Automatic annotation (TrEMBL):
InterPro entries from the UniProt entry: Marvel (IPR008253), Synaptogyrin (IPR016579)
Residue stretches making up the MARVEL domain: 21-173
Keyword Nucleotidyltransferase belongs to the record: no
Subcellular location: Membrane
Membrane disposition: Multi-pass membrane protein
Keywords, ordered alphabetically: Membrane, Transmembrane, Transmembrane helix
Species of origin: Neolamprologus brichardi (Fairy cichlid)
Keyword hit for Manganese: no
Ranges that cross the membrane: 31-50, 70-88, 109-130, 150-178
Protein name stated in the entry: Synaptogyrin 3a
Amino acid sequence: MDGVGSFGAGRTGSTIDPITFAKQPQTIIRVLSWIFSLVVFASIVNEGYVNMGSERLHCIFNKNTDACNYGVFVGLVGLLACSFFFLLDYKFSSISSVKDRKKAVMLEIGFSGFWTFLYFVSFCFLANQWSRTRAEELPLNQGADAARAAIAFSFFSIITWIVPMPTMSVCSGVCAVLRVHALISESVVSCGVCATVRVCPRAPSSCTRDM
């Protein structure tokens, strides 16, 4: 179909409209993931360590340094990954090779799934260590807000990392559930349900093959 290239992106050389790109659900969710990762990272770095009558700093999560280090790692790498995939989404239509486009899509799917798991571990780990932290370990409730923010936004990040349809816009539940089939079969189709869908499986009633 006119204006639709492999994996649903615009044909090579097509003009990218920044406003249209910014309004896509994929872009909005990517920005939210970036913000949530920043909150997790900044909360622990800025207020995740306290000193109690000594120069030595202790992690606010039950004095478990591994908990703070893990939260910082997941937040920082998530922040950088969001920036990378944001640029990849924006430049996707300029990729001329179908194989390269497929690799980009699979990279996003694989990384998103993996980072969703790491954020799930982060949420469980931080919540567990926070529940074991005694009140006397945090005089005047130091770092409590930062701890709760890191835990809460780790949970929110699970949602924003698992929801996005890599390098495609979300248009319908059917296209979302069956996108893997479309990738495996290498079928490139345009779904009539939504003009911005990137990858959509065969659906005779609503989709037509991109010739």
